[in-house]
Design goal:
Layout: H1 2-7, E1 15-25, E2 47-55, E3 61-68, H2 77-88, E4 94-97, H3 104-113, E5 116-119, H4 128-135, E6 141-142, E7 147-157, E8 163-175, H5 176-187
Parallel strand pairs: 1-4, 4-5
Antiparallel strand pairs: 1-2, 2-3, 6-7, 7-8
InterPro entries: IS1634_transpos, Transposase_11
GO molecular function, one term: transposase activity
Protein name: Transposase
Length: 188
């Protein structure tokens, strides 16, 4: 199916969206990939598997991979991308992923492979300087939809603080609508 879609120019896999999730089993047989792990469904005593999946810009799955149920989401990423590159001979790609994939080893992997990426970043895990930059109201651009944003270019650093020669561009967004929604959730 993938080959047919590509041939007919109905599929663009230069940009893919990656995510992983869990699915649980109500069973007494613990075998294969079924393992107890962090359950997104709140089923902490049930065996589960982790599924990583990439979709194209139309939301059509490009590739999936099953992992043992005790695999952390962030630990699915590198194996998945390597397998996908091998199978589909992908060289130039942009990977979009959520903050669950935003860990140092995944970012380093993408930079080392020369892959483009857009990955959410957790403000609460950022440095003091990053938080100050985000909270400083200067230089935000206000859109007509109520979204505010600004950008920041930073040097990518190795763990010891040495510059690795690569630049990252951060796009910081803020929405009053989202803020109100999050404040309501926190009150529960």
């Amino acid at each position: 199916m993938n080959s047919v879609l590509i041939k007919e120019h109905k599929r663009n896999i230069e940009i893919i969206w990656y995510d992983s999730t869990t699915t649980y089993f109500e069973t007494f047989n613990r075998e294969g990939y079924k393992k107890p792990g962090y359950s997104k469904d709140g089923k902490f005593k049930e065996d589960q598997i982790v599924i990583g999946m990439a979709t194209d810009s139309n939301g059509i799955p490009v590739h999936y991979k099953v992992f043992p149920g005790n695999t952390a989401d962030a630990n699915t990423f590198i194996q998945f991308v390597l397998e996908m590159q091998k199978i589909y001979q992908i060289k130039n790609i942009t990977i979009v992923a959520d903050k669950g994939m935003s860990v140092n080893k995944n970012i380093r992997f993408l930079e080392d492979k020369g892959l483009n990426f857009i990955i959410s970043y957790r403000m609460k895990t950022g440095s003091k300087l990053f938080k100050e930059f985000v909270l400083n109201q200067e230089n935000y651009i206000h859109s007509q939809t109520g979204l505010m944003y600004k950008t920041q270019e930073i040097a990518s650093l190795y763990r010891n603080g040495r510059n690795n020669g690569k630049l990252r561009k951060r796009i910081i967004t803020f929405s009053k609508k989202e803020q109100k929604k999050m404040l309501k959730i926190e009150k529960f």
